C-alpha cells in the first residue's frame, strides 16, 4: 500500500513540530541532518512517495530498501538516493541499530544549475542503492561534514556551495560504482518486460489525483518515451507486443478511469478535472471523454 505523497513542508513539520509557514520558508529548499540513532522496530518508514530528493549515508549492515517494485540490499554501509515520487521504504533487521547523515532538497533548488534527474541513480532502471565499505563511508562522510559547516556559515553564496556538495555526492557515488549506476542492459523478452513495467509504473504513480491543484506531469506517448530514454516507436512496439495495446490506448484508458472516479466522487468542476488530467482546454477534455465513454462528462455525472 503506497501512502500519501509527503511534501518537504510535511517532512519539516514532522521533524520539528507544527511550524508556521514563514519558518518553513526560511528553512528553505535544502537542509542536512544527522540520522538519529535508530533501532529496529522503533521507527518504520512508510512505503510512500516524497516530492523531494533525499540522499542518505547510513552505517551498519543488513540494509534492505523497497524502491518502486524492486528490493535492494546493502550488506555493509549504505548510500541511498531517493527520487521524488518513486515510492520507497527502508527496512531494518531485527537487531539493527543505524546512524548516519542525510540531506533533503527540492528540484527547484537546482533550477538554473542543471538537471539533477539526468543522473543514472535518479533515472528509471538505475541503481539508487550502493553498499559501501567503512573506508568509503568515511570518504562520503567528509562531504556531509562540509555541508554542516557550510549551512551554519554566514557566507552569502553558501547555497551555491551546497549545490556543489550535492553534486560531489552524486559524482563520488558514480566514481565508486560506475557499473552499478548504469541502467541495466537487457535484451529480448526481458527488455520488453522491463520497459513495459517501467512505463506502467510511471503511468500509475501519477494517480490518484487528490486535489484540483494537482496535475499529472506525463500525458503523451512522447513524454513517456523521453522519460524512459527510448524512441517513441520502440516504446509503442514493445507495449503492443506485451499488452496488445498501443501507448496512446493505455494512457487514454488510465486517464478515463481517473476521470470517471473524479466525476463520481468529487464536486470539482469539469474544467478542474480536465486540467488535473493534463487538458488545459476544457473542450479538449470533453472531446476526449466523449470519445472514450460515448457520453459527455456532464451526462456521466448526472
UniProtKB/TrEMBL annotation:
SUPFAM superfamilies: Homeodomain-like (SSF46689), Regulatory protein AraC (SSF51215). InterPro entries: AraC-bd (IPR003313), Homeodomain-like_sf (IPR009057), HTH-like (IPR037923), HTH_AraC (IPR018060). SMART domains: HTH_ARAC (SM00342). Residues 193-302 form the HTH araC/xylS-type domain. Keywords: DNA-binding, Transcription, Transcription regulation. Transmembrane segments: none annotated. GO terms for molecular function: DNA-binding transcription factor activity; sequence-specific DNA binding. PROSITE patterns: HTH_ARAC_FAMILY_2. This is Helix-turn-helix domain-containing protein. It comes from Chitinophaga barathri.
Amino acid at each position: 500500500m503506497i501512502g500519501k505523497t509527503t511534501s518537504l513542508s510535511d517532512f519539516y513539520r514532522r521533524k520539528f513540530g507544527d511550524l508556521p509557514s514563514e519558518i518553513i520558508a526560511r528553512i528553505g529548499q535544502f537542509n542536512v541532518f544527522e540520522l538519529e540513532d535508530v533501532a529496529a522496530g522503533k521507527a518504520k518508514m512508510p512505503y510512500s512517495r516524497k516530492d523531494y530528493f533525499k540522499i542518505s549515508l547510513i552505517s551498519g549492515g543488513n540494509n534492505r530498501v523497497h524502491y518502486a517494485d524492486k528490493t535492494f540490499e546493502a550488506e555493509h554501509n549504505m548510500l541511498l538516493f531517493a527520487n521524488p515520487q518513486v515510492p520507497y521504504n527502508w527496512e531494518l533487521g531485527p537487531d539493527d541499530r543505524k546512524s548516519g547523515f542525510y540531506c533533503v532538497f527540492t528540484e527547484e533548488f537546482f533550477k538554473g544549475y542543471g538537471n539533477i534527474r539526468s543522473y543514472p541513480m535518479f533515472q528509471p532502471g538505475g541503481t539508487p542503492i550502493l553498499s559501501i565499505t567503512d573506508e568509503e563511508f568515511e570518504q562520503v562522510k567528509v562531504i556531509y561534514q562540509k555541508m554542516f559547516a557550510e549551512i551554519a556559515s554566514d557566507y552569502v553564496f553558501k547555497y551555491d556551495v551546497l549545490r556543489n556538495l550535492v553534486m560531489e555526492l552524486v559524482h563520488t557515488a558514480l566514481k565508486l560504482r560506475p557499473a552499478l549506476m548504469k541502467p541495466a542492459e537487457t535484451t529480448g523478452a526481458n527488455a520488453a518486460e522491463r520497459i513495459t513495467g517501467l512505463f506502467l509504473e510511471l503511468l500509475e504513480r501519477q494517480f490518484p489525483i487528490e486535489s484540483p491543484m494537482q496535475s499529472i506531469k506525463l500525458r503523451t506517448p512522447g513524454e513517456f518515451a523521453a522519460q524512459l530514454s527510448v524512441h517513441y516507436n520502440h516504446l509503442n512496439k514493445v507495449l503492443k507486443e506485451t499488452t496488445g495495446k498501443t501507448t496512446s490506448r493505455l494512457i487514454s484508458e488510465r486517464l478515463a478511469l481517473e476521470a470517471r472516479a473524479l466525476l463520481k466522487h468529487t464536486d470539482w468542476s469539469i474544467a478542474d478535472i480536465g486540467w488535473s488530467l493534463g487538458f488545459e482546454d476544457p473542450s479538449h477534455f470533453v472531446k476526449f471523454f466523449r470519445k472514450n465513454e460515448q457520453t459527455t462528462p456532464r451526462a456521466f455525472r448526472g
